Amino acid sequence: MSTLYERLGGANGITKMVDDIVAAHLINPVIKSRFLPYLEKPEKVAEVKKHTCDFFGAGSGGPESYTGRSMLETHRGLNINEAEYMAVVDDIMNVLQKHGVDEPARKDVLAITYALKDEILHQ
Fold it and tell me: Is 48 buried (19+), middle (13-18) or exposed (0-12) by CB count in 10 A?
């Protein structure tokens, strides 16, 4: 059986999906105000994308190493609410489907996002 990493398309597939997830966040009316300031800092966008790719890669069985901050540290002080959290999850799920990721892999990613929920909400 293939790993989640392989089912996500490996490094190339994950990179393309992360690009599309960030683009989706920038137009999502629920969360875009949190992401639009990043457009003025392209180096910050590149850093966020790299950390996100590494996080997806390492967390799905790939060879990447995630060296970014913990989910708790990353989201501390942001006071993310349930609607914002769900908007992010919806964007991720929609992008995975758009990229042809099969349902079992999408469910695996969904389970991971829910496992991280307490480290993200209301911090």
Answer: middle
Query: Tokens representing 56?
Result: 């997806």
Which tokens belong to 12?
Answer: 């190339």
Tell me the residue range of the domain where 31 lies. 4-120
What string of H, E and C letters represents the secondary structure of the chain? CCCHHHHCCHHHHHHHHHHHHHHHHHHCCCCHHHHHHHHHCHHHHHHHHHHHHHHHHHHCCCCCCCCCCCHHHHHCCCCECHHHHHHHHHHHHHHHHHCCCCHHHHHHHHHHHHHCHHHHECC
Query: How many separate domains does the chain show?
Result: 1
State pLDDT tens for residues 67-119: 989 989 988 988 999 999 999 999 999 999 999 999 999 999 999 999 999 99
- Residue 6, amino acid: E
Q: CATH number, domain at 39?
A: 1.10.490.10
d(CA 34, CA 106): 25
